Amino acid sequence: MVDVNENPFDGTDSIFERKQPLKKDTFTPDTIFHRDEEIEFYINALQDVIVGHDPNNVFVYGPTGVGKTAVTKWVRDKLEEKAEAEDIPLTVVGPINCRNYRSAYALVNTLVNEFRDPENQLPESGYSTDSVFEFLYEEIEAVGGNVLIILDEIDNIPADARNDFLYELPRAEANENTPITDAKVGLIGISNDLKFVDVLEPKVKSTLGEREIKFGPYDATELRDILGYYADIAFREDVLGEDVVPLAAAFSAQERGDVRQGLRILEKAGEYARMEGAEGVTEAHTRRATDTIETDELLDYFEHDLSSQQALTYLATTLALIEPKHEASTKRIYNLYSSIAESSGRRVKSERKIYEFLDQLSMQGLVRSAERNLGRKGGRKYIYEVTDDPTDIIKAALQSSYSDAVPSNVNGILEHYLEDEATEFEAPDTTDDEQQNLWQFT
């Protein structure tokens, strides 16, 4: 029973000293671990700016949480420091996270305003996209010298802007149709999608890949060093059990070598200890955190990283996968997408759009596809699967703002999916329309 006259909040925290270091995206470390080779490649690529040559274009890629943005910021700061000491004209914009922009106009508008004074900001609407690009070229020429633009998560650049950003922009000074004559432009692109360059046009690929730097996942030993550094700053002295950091590191290395995931485990383990009023964080708290971390991460995708249409497509792909026969063809995914979108009162997009949403999900590493040759029937089709456990995806969807799109009988279908092959549904071959009758849409 809760005493409503008693304030439940505690003014002290016996577990955490500072929680900010566990929020990797908002904390800048004083030390960068296990990225000496990548830093060396980075410095070599940008050395040309210091010695008077045109800046190179640099493409940095690797999975999430492996230090790409942290290293980029560190190298950027050192480059600016050296340029100032040597009186070399240099303007650096970014990193700008492309995930935050759903149109070419919005992204270019933000870049223009990065160059402009606060009292002379470009409005969010009122011009054509071509005009806004022209404003950007004018701003680049106005500052002159070397101009580096850093775009984080470039795989999220809207399709209608990719050629302009990744081909035209770095070569703008050589294009007689732009006002750039004296400025020298370089582009640094950071991507979580290792295959992003492969799907670009050859001329764009050639420009973007002038210098490529690959960041691989961390192993357990490296993660132990990194997580230990953050834990020493974040937690109070002597509250962490000796197995906590090694366990978080081992789990993260086994999953995908992601520092961000390890930090989330440490934070959640600390919160469990605090909720219990424990004197310290134990192995049990850490194991409990690892049990729920996957669902939490997927919930973040649903709530923060995916557009509503991407989220519905992701859910539909998962539903198609757990059906009897377990085959998530594009047509089947679209039929399920249409049903859950309509049943939850959301707009239904065209089947052509579903291909775009699936491509976007693939770029984010959430789904993957395999091409199947239909043989005598002729033609080919794509079969999709999700890269995370369908159970975790369904749990996350049920906790998200898309819970109203989840069929009411999903748990029953999921139970059958998880059963041994011998006890699966004995379902005959069915058409996509007949399969749809298995689901109960609310």
Can you describe this structure?
- With 442 residues, the protein is of the alpha/beta class.
- The protein has 3 domains: 35-214, P-loop containing nucleotide triphosphate hydrolases (Rossmann fold, 3-Layer(aba) Sandwich), CATH 3.40.50.300; 219-302, Helicase, Ruva Protein, domain 3, CATH 1.10.8; 307-421, Orthogonal Bundle (Arc Repressor Mutant, subunit A), CATH 1.10.10.10.
- 47% of the residues lie in helices and 11% in strands.
- The protein is built from 16 helices and 8 strands.
- The protein has helices at residues 36-51, 68-85, 104-115, 129-143, 162-168, 202-208, 220-234, 244-255, 259-276, 283-305, 308-322, 330-343, 351-363, 390-399, 410-418, 432-436; strands spanning 58-61, 90-97, 146-152, 184-191, 211-214, 328-329, 367-373, 380-386.
- The strands form 2 sheets. Strands 2-3-4-1-5 form a 5-stranded parallel beta sheet, with helices on both faces. It has a 3-stranded antiparallel beta sheet with strand order 6-8-7.
- Strand 3, helix 5 and strand 4 (184-191) form a beta-alpha-beta unit.
- Helix 7 packs across helix 9, helix 8 (244-255) packs across helix 9 (259-276) and helix 11 crosses helix 13 (351-363).
- The model is unreliable at 420-428 (pLDDT under 50).
- One of its GO terms (molecular function) is ATP hydrolysis activity.
Descriptive labels:
442 residues; alpha/beta; Rossmann fold; Helicase, Ruva Protein, domain 3; Arc Repressor Mutant, subunit A; 3 domains; 16 helices; ORC1-type DNA replication protein; Cdc6_lid; DNA replication; ORC1/CDC6; ATP-binding
